[in-house]
Structure formats: structure tokens, C-alpha cells
Design the sequence.
């Protein structure tokens, strides 16, 4: 029986890379791709005859963690593996809480991706060894939220974006360095401005430095 898969990622280059890995296996077929969580939910309305979704985390409009939660509420039969470049504790914790069935890194080779998909479909939880170790640590120690500075809470990725901006890089250059789309970078910057209560890049960088965030 063929496993029906959807790939959700805002980076078309990375979608093609995943499709190429899956193409080695006759028991896997990609039914469709989606560019973000909202796009995925619209596509599922007309075609939710799926077995598994490979879900990126950081996407504009609706990220992978929000999308996972909504898909699991509406289509609990569909398995979801987070397929991401990020292995920080916050993402792992939130993905598991949202109902993700597995968590793999995009650098995974084709054979291990295939094994992870089969393992998940058989009721297991596919995870890279490094992710599994972090998950164990999260279970042993209550999850600690990001460090607060004057009530400011930025995610690890928002701090990464701020650090890049502090070097005077353009949005396109930041997107390229962090392997994200420009749209995702703009969304992060929008969130940073709101959390820091500033109106431009210079103010954001100065306030972040004053509070030892970067």
C-alpha cells in the first residue's frame, strides 16, 4: 500500500529536496505541497485523504506548530512529522504539545527519512538521536521559558534575526543566512518590534543591546 504524503514548507527549494529523497521509495507518494499552515488547511478541506504530513516549523501566515494543532483537532488520523532545521528546546516542546508524532531534521538522509515515516505510521515516534536526547531532558526538567529581560520574551529565532540585523544586513541577506524566506523574516521582525515596543530596526537593536538580549 502506498503512503500518501503532503509536504508543508515555504521554501520551494527545500520542498524539491524532500521530494527527491522520497522519490527513491515506491511505497511513498507526494499528494500535494503547501506553502504555510493556512494553505495546508485549505487544501485539506478538499483532500484530507492523507496518511502523513512533513511539516516545517517557521513559515509566514501560520507556522507549523499552529498548523499541527489545528490539523490534529480536525483530522486526528493524519500523522505529522516536524521536518525542520531547528532543534531548540522551545520548538521541540511546542511541537510535541501541539500533537506532532515525530521530529526530524532536514539534513536527514533519504533512507533514515523513509524509516522514520514507516516508524511513525506504525505508531512510533520518529526522532533524530539529538532530538530524542533533548526530549528526554525536557521530560526530566520542567520546561523553562525564554529568559525575561524587563518583561521581554523573544524566541531563539527572533534573537537570531536581531543579531543578523545588528550587523547591518538586509532582509534578503538575513533570510539567506538563516535558510528562511524573506516573508518569514518580515514576520519575525514584526513580532520583534511589537515585543520590544519599537518602530524601526535601529531602535530594536539598541534596546536589545541595552537588555543584553544580543
Sequence:
Amino acid at each position: 500500500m502506498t503512503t500518501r504524503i503532503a509536504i508543508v514548507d515555504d521554501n520551494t527549494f527545500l520542498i524539491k529536496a524532500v521530494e527527491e529523497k522520497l522519490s527513491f521509495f515506491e511505497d511513498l507518494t507526494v499528494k500535494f505541497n503547501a506553502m504555510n499552515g493556512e494553505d495546508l488547511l485549505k487544501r485539506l478541506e478538499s483532500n484530507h485523504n492523507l496518511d502523513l504530513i512533513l511539516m516545517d516549523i517557521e513559515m509566514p501566515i501560520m507556522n507549523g506548530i499552529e498548523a499541527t494543532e489545528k490539523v490534529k483537532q480536525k483530522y486526528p488520523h493524519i500523522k505529522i512529522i516536524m521536518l525542520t532545521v531547528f532543534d531548540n528546546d522551545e520548538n521541540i516542546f511546542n511541537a510535541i504539545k501541539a500533537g506532532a508524532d515525530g521530529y526530524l531534521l532536514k539534513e536527514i538522509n533519504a533512507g533514515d527519512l523513509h524509516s522514520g515515516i514507516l516508524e511513525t505510521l506504525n505508531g512510533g515516534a520518529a526522532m533524530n538521536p539529538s532530538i530524542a536526547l533533548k526530549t528526554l531532558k525536557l521530560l526530566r526538567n520542567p520546561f523553562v521559558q525564554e529568559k525575561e529581560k524587563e518583561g521581554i520574551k523573544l524566541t531563539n529565532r527572533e534573537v537570531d534575526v536581531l543579531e543578523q540585523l545588528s550587523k547591518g544586513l538586509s532582509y534578503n541577506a538575513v533570510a539567506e543566512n538563516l535558510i528562511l524566506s524573506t516573508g518569514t523574516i518580515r514576520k519575525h521582525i514584526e513580532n520583534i518590534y511589537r515585543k520590544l515596543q519599537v518602530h524601526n530596526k535601529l531602535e530594536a537593536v539598541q534596546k536589545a543591546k541595552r537588555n543584553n538580549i544580543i
Observations:
- The chain is about 50% helix and 15% strand.
